[in-house]
Structure formats: C-alpha cells, structure tokens
C-alpha cells in the first residue's frame, strides 16, 4: 500500500525536558499543512527507512506548523535515537497526513484528561481545542519529576495553567492522588481520555472498571506486545499456496520464512505499512491503525500483529 507523504522542513529542534526533544515542522514548499483534529498523529519517515508515529501536540488551529515531541526510549529500536541524534534543524523529512483514532467526543459534558509521561502529547492538543470551545475540562499530568515534564514551563505561562495539575513522583510532601480520587471528584457523565505507557493505562482502565465509569477513551503511547493466538493457515490468492501460521508467530514472520516478504516498519500495528488485502476469511484485528469501520469490513488487516478468526485467511499476495 502506498501512503501519501508530505515533505517538511525541521524549523526548530529544542530540548523539551530531560531525554525529550520537541520538533517543529513546516511544509517545505511554504504552503499550509493539512488541518488536523485534536488527538491526531503523523507517520515520520526517517532517512534510515524507519517509520515512526508521533502525536501532534500543538493547537489544532495552527495550520502552518506541526509540533511533535520525541522521548529517547532506552529500549529504542532506532527511531527515537535517530530523531534525537541524526535529525537537525534545516533537514527535510517526509511525513504522512494526520490520522486520528483518538478523537474528542462533541458535547457539553465535562472532560478529564489523564497523561502519563510523554503520553501528554495528544492530550495537550485536546486541551487547546477544549479551551477554544469553552468546554469544561482538567488535565492531570503524571511524571517522574519536573525535569522530565515536557511543556511544564509553557503550560504554566499559558491560559491552560488553571486547567492543569502536575503530579511528580519525587515531589516532597505532596500527596499524589489516585485515579480513583480524581474520578471521585468528577461528574459521573464526564468523558475520560488517557494516554501513556501501558502500565499507566492498565491502572486507569482497572480503576474505571471498578468504578463502572461509562466513558473512557485511551491511546497507548507504545503498542501492546503482539499476543499469541490459535494457529491458522494463510492461502496466497495468486498461487493457491498454503502457509501455516503457528500460534506463537506473526503472519509476517511465518511468510518471511516461507520466502514471501511483506514490507513492514513499526511491526506493532500502528503505521499501516504492511496493510494487506483479505480476499476470504475473517481477520482478528489487533492493530491501532484501522478504524472501527475499516475493521468491520474485514477486507484488509495488518499481518505484523493481527491474526485470523477463521481457519484460513486468503490474502491478496
């Protein structure tokens, strides 16, 4: 699948916090960038060939530039290290058009934003949008320390200040509230949006289940590990060849061993590089790329992480 890309220039790169860099991107031809909605992300194509996904964190009303923040991941597979060490002001990059799987629900209800670390990026964009709409909201921003808190000074000097609470692990004499404490003081019909590491999201989800919270929306800062599943068979539409997919192996891995290569990038079901058409069978979608409507159609899936609900999947290969 060929995805449309946009050439952009890095017009600013600065330290946003310890191990976090902020990049400001403008279109290389000087034209306005495509508008985006709060919660959107973009694919960033690195010179090495890697593709990584980053949430847009600036005000959606700004069309001349995109801002992304990149955490230097100690377990990096090359993406965050390349962004920190290899990408400089003046460089040209290719990016994908904004895509949103984490949208704000319209309405008059109150909104609670729960950010864990660098997961603040899409929520900050949401905060700017909610502020512009005059909506009732509050952002609770959990980090290890002030020095690891991106946008700390910017928020304190902005109109968002009154709507943001910072909670640092190392703050002496400050009782950090639980998610239950926060929701216990929130209107019961409020919509909760959470983003951060998987451990943080699991904590938020467990709390919401216990409290029978009706409206929770979340996005993982990193994808969940690809889970194993039942064994099944892939049939290649072009040749009729059958390839067994073991329970503990992805479709991409099994096909590669059989000499059938599928282009991949993130290998976590986020970027859509490996998206493949399904001719027959029922996919078991485990990605974060397809929309609910696209999943319901069942005519494509991401073989890097998704599996099958039927014994055989016939793929357009």
UniProtKB/TrEMBL annotation:
Protein name in the entry: Vanillate O-demethylase ferredoxin subunit
Enzyme Commission identifier(s): 1.14.13.82
FAD-binding FR-type domain span: 3-105
Entry keywords, A to Z: 2Fe-2S, Flavoprotein, Iron, Iron-sulfur, Metal-binding, Oxidoreductase
Source species of the chain: Herbaspirillum frisingense
Pfam families per record: Fer2 (PF00111)
Keyword Coiled coil in annotation: no
InterPro entries: 2Fe-2S_ferredoxin-like_sf (IPR036010), 2Fe-2S_ferredoxin-type (IPR001041), 2Fe2S_fd_BS (IPR006058), Beta-grasp_dom_sf (IPR012675), FAD-bd_FR_type (IPR017927), FNR_nucleotide-bd (IPR039261), MRET (IPR050415), Riboflavin_synthase-like_b-brl (IPR017938)
One of the record's GO molecular function terms: vanillate monooxygenase activity
PANTHER family attached to this UniProt entry: CARNITINE MONOOXYGENASE REDUCTASE SUBUNIT, NADH OXIDOREDUCTASE HCR
Enzyme class: oxidoreductase
Location of the 2Fe-2S ferredoxin-type domain: 232-317
């Amino acid at each position: 699948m060929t995805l449309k890309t946009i050439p952009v220039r890095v017009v600013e790169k600065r330290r946003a916090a310890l191990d976090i860099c902020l990049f400001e991107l403008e279109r290389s031809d000087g034209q306005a960038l495509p508008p985006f909605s709060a919660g959107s992300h973009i694919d960033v194509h690195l010179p090495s060939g890697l593709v990584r996904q980053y949430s847009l964190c600036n005000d959606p009303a700004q069309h001349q530039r995109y801002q992304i923040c990149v955490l230097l991941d100690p377990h990096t597979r090359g993406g965050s290290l390349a962004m920190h060490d290899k990408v400089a002001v003046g460089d040209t990059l290719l990016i994908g058009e904004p895509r949103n799987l984490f949208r704000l629900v319209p309405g008059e209800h109150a909104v609670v934003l729960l950010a864990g670390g660098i997961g603040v990026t899409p929520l900050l964009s949401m905060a700017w949008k909610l502020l512009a709409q005059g909506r009732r909201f509050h952002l609770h921003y959990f980090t290890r320390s002030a020095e690891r808190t991106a946008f700390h000074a910017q928020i304190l000097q902005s109109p968002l200040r009154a709507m943001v609470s910072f909670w640092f692990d190392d703050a002496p004499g400050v009782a950090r509230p639980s998610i239950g404490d926060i929701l216990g003081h929130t209107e019961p019909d409020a919509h909760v949006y959470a983003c951060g590491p998987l451990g943080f999201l699991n904590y938020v989800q467990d709390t919401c289940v216990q409290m029978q919270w009706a409206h929770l929306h979340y996005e993982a800062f990193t994808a969940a590990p690809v889970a194993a599943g039942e064994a099944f068979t892939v049939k290649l539409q072009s040749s009729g060849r059958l390839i067994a997919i073991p329970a503990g192996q992805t479709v991409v891995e099994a096909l590669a061993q059989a000499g059938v290569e599928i282009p991949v990038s993130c290998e976590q079901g986020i970027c859509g590089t490996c998206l493949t058409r399904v001719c027959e069978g029922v996919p078991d979608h485990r990605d974060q790329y397809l929309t609910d409507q696209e999943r319901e159609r069942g005519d494509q899936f991401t073989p890097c992480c998704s599996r099958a609900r039927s014994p055989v999947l016939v793929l357009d290969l």
